[in-house]
Amino acid sequence: MNKKPNFDGMSVDELWQLHEELSQVLSVRLTSEKRELEKRLAQLRREKEMRQTESADPQRAPRERRKYPRVFPKYRNPEEPSETWSGRGKQPRWLTAALKTGHKIEEFVIGKPEGSGESPRRRRA
Questions:
Q1: Domain for residue 50, yes or no?
Q2: Which residues 6+ apart lie within 8 Å of 90 measured at CB?
Q3: Which top-rank group of organisms is this from (predicted)?
């Protein structure tokens, strides 16, 4: 590599000419690098498409999500009957507070839900 040019000793016109030459060289190099990267990207896309068409097996297609039966509420807040809990997930605040005050969970059990002819656990396919 050449030694560092003395910019302090150059005139403004010489510096401007050097700037234009550098800009031109940089433009050519950046354009060629960009072309190479675009070629590589196009090649990678083609390879990806080929892999996808090869693996497009109808047996491996994602299945639809299984439909789960409706879960009926098992516990009801006697102070606010619209507040119910199915027994799944985190206990609601009203039930947690009631259990802390000495109540038992059996006190909040709801009778058999209306409209269900059979137990939801009975059916198993």
A1: yes
A2: none
A3: Bacteria
Per-residue model confidence as pLDDT tens for the chain (125 residues)? 577 878 888 899 999 999 999 999 999 999 999 999 999 999 999 998 888 777 766 566 677 888 888 899 999 999 999 999 999 999 999 999 999 999 999 999 998 655 555 555 555 54
Any domain includes 1 = no
User: Is residue 116 domain-resident?
Assistant: no
Q: Which domain holds residue 28?
A: 12-54
Domain assignment present for 34? yes
Q: Let me know: does 113 contact 73? Beta carbons within 8 Å.
A: yes
Phi then psi for residue 79, to 5 deg, are: -80, -30
